[in-house]
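hey so i finally got around to running the thing on that chain from the lab meeting. sorry it took forever, my laptop kept dying and i had to restart like 3 times. anyway pasting the input first so we r on the same page abt which one it is
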Amino acid sequence: MRKKIIAGNWKMNTDLNSGLELAKNVSQKVDEFAFNSDEFGMIVSPPFTHIHAIGNVLSSKIGLSSQNVAEWSNGAYTGEISAQMVKSIGANYAILGHSERRSYFGEDNQVLFTKLKLTLENNLTPIFCIGEVLEEREENKQFDVVKSQIDEVLFKLDVVDFKKVIIAYEPVWAIGTGKTASPEQAQEIHAYIRKIVADKFGANVADNTTVLYGGSCKPSNADGLFSQPDIDGGLIGGAALNADDFVQLLKQLVANK
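ok and heres what got predicted. didnt touch it at all, straight out
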């Protein structure tokens, strides 16, 4: 049975002190909430500068992620942070291919495959983001875009490594805009993702692949999304910066599954 997950991407928000306070508040609330940690999970992804310190205060029920890794293992790359470095400071996940990285920093599928391999080689679990922009959605190209992003990166892995990946579908047009894909729109894409995984690696692998929804998910719309059969949780932006909202999303996920 695939794991259901709430993952919080803090992006470039919080300084160290406010980040520690947020992590402590989330941890306290999560520790007060009884759930099956084999079936459900929570992950936080603070800025690089906070990872080690937050790892020291975080509940054992919560996983720790970076928001990116470098495309090189080491060397003269000023300002870059390698997967090995991320692993060494206590993280066990890494977000890759977020739409902001693709758009603002020009990360293409070739770069992302390199990052994916380095992430796996350093025993980090990738949270790999895919999704279409508004123009592609309006031209009904969302299925082609998603398939291309999966074909050119994830399907270059063998089945053993693919089974280690968490997929996050992001309708890019819904990130930071206040718009949200309808539950039906989101379910349609999630089901399609699972179908092409089944075509490639078989139904058993597809049934056990966690596919998260990312795109302005918050407590007010989460029930409709989390009740869909192929949506396994959320990659959360703004709502992850509020401890009450973030833990409420976990509670809604548990209640809906």
